[in-house]
Amino acid sequence: MQQRKLGGSGIATPPIIFGGNVFGWTLDKAASFRILDKLVDVGLTCIDTADVYSAWAPGNQGGESEAIIGDWLAARGNRAKVTILTKVGMQMGPRDADGNGPKHAVGLSPRWIAQGVEDSLRRLRTDSIDLYQAHKDDPETPLADSLGAFGDLIKAGKVRAIGASNYSAARLGEALAVSAQHGLPRYQTLQPLYNMMDRKVFEAELGPLCQREGIGVINYYALASGFLSGKYRSEADFGKSKRGGGMAKYLTPRGLAVLDALDAVAKEMSATPAQVALAWLLAKPAVTAPIASATTEAQVDDLVKAATLTLPADAVATLDGASAE
Ligand SMILES: NC(=O)c1ccc[n+]([C@@H]2O[C@H](COP(=O)([O-])OP(=O)(O)OC[C@H]3O[C@@H](n4cnc5c(N)ncnc54)[C@H](OP(=O)(O)O)[C@@H]3O)[C@@H](O)[C@H]2O)c1
């Protein structure tokens, strides 16, 4: 499988990155281990997670995904074979005991980054994270402070490179300028929402900025949480997955037109709609490697096939037209 470069980080990735929010959520520990083993077998060895995954699942508090990955790495002894991407800054941390106020130990404050990395390294049972990402912008903390804290982690060998997620184009541009002005490490990647159903925000400004700046784009919800697999065609299908309840927003005339176009291209190419939706992303010059997850080995097979599926220009044009916002 041809590898792609994550911006200027020096890190390479397969064309599809595996999304680790399923570990400890829609997959229990044993099922997670089976999927992780399969990922190594098929060469999808870049895995994205976050300190907060998967806090939203009943009974969870966050950290479950990293802990499952860490236990699996320890059990298999294969840390060197896997590229680990994680994130900090979504979770609100504990408040300061010294009365300085919460902003000193939350979001992307230096103290919270320093604490968050230790917690992630412990759960992941490793001594180094390949790509450490700011999960969302923190307007309360000066960019130079966060970037300085990330720089300290790189110097200490705890993190190889840094990335941003959910930043606006304006703030990402500002962060890059601050890095250059202060001689600090720069965000090498951006993790934005981008898929055939959610195009506008990325295509308007973020994509062009990332291309100009050489920032690697690793977009999330590449399958629109499963909608682009085509398994939700009516409300009666929502019960097919724990994710089903979230599909109502996509089940619109535009959504159904997108599924029709995916069906047509999939038939022509002897592929599946999920493969075609990912191949459409891979055909976009601004995209480095979409992030998608899977809960079965058959779904992982779809991800593998997508990684090597090249769509002809007329198929891309058909899909562009059907999904235009
Ligand atoms: N930075 C951020 O703020 C942010 C936010 C969200 C996500 N992310 C990242 O993006 C990753 C991917 O997000 P996601 O998993 O929510 O969305 P996704 O990749 O769009 O959807 C994946 C889900 O769709 C279903 N699916 C996958 N392949 C399928 C197939 N071939 N046929 C039928 N169903 C299929 C599976 O769920 P079921 O089997 O359960 O239906 C799978 O878990 C996350 O793990 C995370 O790493 C980042």
Task: Summarize, please.
The protein is an alpha/beta fold and 325 residues long. The protein contains 10 helices and 10 strands.
Describe the structure.
The two termini are about 30 Å apart. This protein has 10 helices and 10 strands. It has a domain at about 5-190: NADP-dependent oxidoreductase domain (TIM Barrel, Alpha-Beta Barrel). The chain is α/β, with parallel strands linked by helices and about 325 residues long. The chain has helices at about 30-40, 65-75, 110-125, 145-155, 170-180, 200-215, 255-270, 275-280, 295-305, 315-325; strands at about 5, 10-15, 15-20, 45-50, 85-90, 130-135, 160-165, 190, 215, 290. The radius of gyration is 19 Å and the shape is globular. The mean pLDDT is about 95. The structure holds NADP nicotinamide-adenine-dinucleotide phosphate. NADP nicotinamide-adenine-dinucleotide phosphate (NAP) binds near residues 19, 191, 226 and 294.
Largest sheet, in brief, is:
8 strands, parallel
Poorly predicted segments:
none
Give the CATH level 1 class of the domain at 4-191.
Alpha Beta
Averaged pLDDT: 95
CATH superfamily of the domain at 4-191: NADP-dependent oxidoreductase domain
CATH third-level topology of the domain at 4-191: TIM Barrel
Strand content: 5-15%
Architecture of the domain at 4-191, CATH level 2?
Alpha-Beta Barrel
Strands of the widest sheet, in order across it, are 9-8-7-6-5-4-3-10
Q: Can you give the helix content as a percent range?
A: 40-55%
Distance between the termini: 32 Å
Rg over CA atoms, rounded to whole Å, is 19 Å
Choose one word for the global shape. Answer: globular
**Count of helical stretches:** 10
Quick one: how many beta strands? 10
Briefly note the structural class of the backbone: alpha/beta
SSE string: EEEHEHEHEHEHEHEHHEHH
Which compounds are bound in this model? NADP nicotinamide-adenine-dinucleotide phosphate
